Model the fold of this input.
Amino acid sequence: MDTSVVTQVAVERYIREEVSNLQNDERKAQAMAGLCILLTQLQEPSVPDELINAIPTFYSLLDDAQSSDRGIQANACAVLSGLMVVSEELQKRIINDGVVRRLQQLITAVADTEERTLQLNALACLAEALRDRKEEAEAFVAAGGLAPVLQLCDPGLPVRLQEAAADVVCAVACADSTDGGLSEQGAVEKLVSLLATPNHDVRVRALMGLGMMLPKSNDHQVLVARNTAAITNLLAIMRQQEDQDCRIVARDIFAGLARNSQCKDFIAKAMRT
Done:
């Protein structure tokens, strides 16, 4: 017998068992943690019906803004992320059920706390829901959802949290019509602040977000050009040799700024300092 089939069957069986444990308050936390792991073990895009039918349970966990168990909520975000990755059909269903609104409310509720795992998992789930989803990204920005995300897009926070927050901004920036909202809510400045980081994953996302946003707006370009630290950091990234991907993106951003007649004097001034 094909061992991969055995593994798939076994994983699906364990998933069903953990779903049944969700109804037991004493076992719920362990069941949620188990589901997070089991979803990563599926070798085929096949999810047991029992888990799909349990999706409303995960929504209810996200809706509990005053929950005393943030760990369970963090795992609920991870499960929903994992389900969206499985198939386009599941992603569409979860998005249509309002997961973006729920995540927005949840992130807003915990943005000022030290609940780092929940913040991280909620951001990752949100990025998965918004990626390549123009209408959802537009509605998210219009509803003011960027505010708590940008609050977590902070150089003083753990690098994985910075990366996850910047990833959400990149997902939103992919939709052309979100440009105005991104600008008004300060996304450009937030991404610029991350350019000084030595962490590759954070830096590359900051560059990717700026690379998508700056060509769409002359005001964005001037804003960055006037920021001496931003130009200095772009030049430093262009000159370093260890991270070629970041070097290329930084070079393209800098070249775009240099072509803008309104930016040239600011760039020259920054290069003299």
Q: What stands out?
A: The mean pLDDT is 89. Residues 1-117 form one domain. The CA atoms of residues 13 and 48 lie 8 Å apart. Residues 3-21 form the longest helix (19 residues).
